[in-house]
């Protein structure tokens, strides 16, 4: 079976080929195979981020259920960029003293 991309509009995985175009059965979106671009993740300064980068937290972040915030300047190593499930948090990482967390690219800068 061929490796077809998900629909760029609704992320449906049941996209099928009809000659030279791809069609989404859920939303009806038609697109070319080359139209699907890989998402580019950028930090607060516009620098491109990739998996394994080290980033620095650019502002104090309150953590629900924690007694103290993540301090500005905290270095986070070996980040993993993920497609956000909630539509907002797109960095999966481990923060020293807090454990596994999800962060927004808009609150970090490449370190």
Give helix % range.
under 10%
**Run of helices and strands:** EEEEEEEEEEE
> What is the spatial order of strands in the main beta sheet?
1-2-3
CATH superfamily of the largest domain: SH3 Domains
Family: Belongs to the YjdM family.
Domain Protein YjdM C-terminal: 42-110
InterPro entries: YjdM, YjdM_C, YjdM_N
Pfam family, one: Zn_Ribbon_YjdM
Written description of the protein model:
By secondary structure, this protein is mainly β. The protein has strands at residues 16-18, 21-23, 30-31, 41-42, 48-49, 55-57, 75-76, 80-81, 91-95, 99-103, 108-110. It has 2 domains: 1-37, Single Sheet (N-terminal domain of TfIIb), CATH 2.20.25.10; 41-110, SH3 type barrels. Helix content is 0%, strand content 29%. Strand 9 (91-95) and strand 10 form a beta hairpin. Belongs to the YjdM family.
């Amino acid at each position: 079976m061929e490796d077809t991309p998900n629909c760029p509009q609704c992320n449906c995985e049941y996209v099928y080929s009809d000659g030279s175009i791809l069609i989404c059965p859920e939303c009806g979106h038609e697109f070319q195979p080359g139209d699907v671009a890989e998402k580019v993740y950028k930090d607060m300064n516009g620098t491109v981020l990739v998996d394994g980068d080290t980033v620095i937290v650019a502002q104090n972040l309150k953590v629900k259920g924690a007694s103290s915030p993540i301090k500005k300047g905290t270095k986070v190593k070996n980040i993993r960029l993920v497609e956000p499930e909630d539509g907002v948090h797109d960095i999966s990482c481990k923060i020293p003293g807090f454990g596994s967390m999800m962060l927004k690219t808009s609150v970090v800068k490449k370190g």
